[in-house]
Each structure stands twice: as structure tokens, then as C-alpha cells.
User: What shape does this take?
Amino acid sequence: MKYMPIKNEIILASKSKVRKEILEKNNIKCHVVVSNTDEEPIKASLLNEGASPELISKNLAEIKATKVSATNENFLVLGADSVIDLDNSIISKPKNRNEALEILKKLNGKYHYLISSVTIAMNGSMIWNYTDKAKLTMKSFSINELQEYLSKISDDALYSYNVYQIEGEGRNLFSKIEGDENTIMGLPIKKIKDFLKDKI
Assistant: This one.
């Protein structure tokens, strides 16, 4: 899909409403062109090769950005990806509420890392990338308490935020949060702004 952005606007290769909101709150104009990348086979292939969660996140962000930029010449395209790293194993987003409960049970009472990667590409090639991670320590909950938490979360939030929405109900799940909250929400905006300064 080709799009001709207006002046001083980038293309966001992500359907994430939160990422778009973060960019707009920081005065970065963007237009969404979704990459429609099938992530699961890529993850599976990288895992078979022994790739780290950081490398998987970086690769997915790069694939999304370069795919969209290849058909939108001479414009900056931002691709992003976030993964949960629990004991060096990736936890993918849930497909239903049963999977969401299973994920919460795995995270229950433990710490994990939320890794967010961003790539900026032009004309089908990566020109910049950055990966950041935050450490989140989850409180211990009973199964009933986890189910009660899930009952308060909308489907949209549940399937978009790796089972917790840090700026909403999800904050109450954690005893300690270490790192940039924008990274947890999927976009380490400070580094992005530093790179884009003088470019748009």
C-alpha cells in the first residue's frame, strides 16, 4: 500500500493506537500504514536459531519498517515491536482470555522484562534502530484475583498490551517498575525524538 505523506510527517508501520498517541503527544505527525507482517513464523524461525528476545524484537521491528518503506519511497517509516522476556523465553500476546490468564499465571510473583524495539527505514533499508527494556516485578495474586483483574480489562486493551495496560489497571499488578514507561507502552520516544530532530 502506497501513501504520500504530507510535509513533516512520518509513516507508522503499526496499528497500535498507543504508539500513534505517543508520537502525536510528542508533536510527531504520522500516518499509519500497517505492514500486515505474520509475526509468529518469524518468531519461530528466530527461536529455532537461538535468537535472544532482544534480537527477535529488533528483527520484527526492522521487517515491519523495511516492508512498508519499500513501497513508500523517500519517506521515513517507523516500525516497532515489543516482547515479554520471562527467564529468557518469549511470551507472545494472548489470542483469547484463557491464554491471557495463563500468561498472568506465568508472570505471577516474578519479574520479567518488557523489550521494545524501533526501526526507522527509508526506501526499503534500515537507517536507524534502538532497543530498550524495562523490568517489571509482579505481585503475587490468587487465581481468583487474576480472573477479577481480567474481567476489568477490555478486549482491545487485553490483546494490544501483552495482558497489562501500564497506564491503566495494569499498574496495580506490579510491586516495582524499573524503566521508561514509554518503552513499556511500546515506543521509547526520547531516542526517537533525538534521531528525528532536524529530519522532519
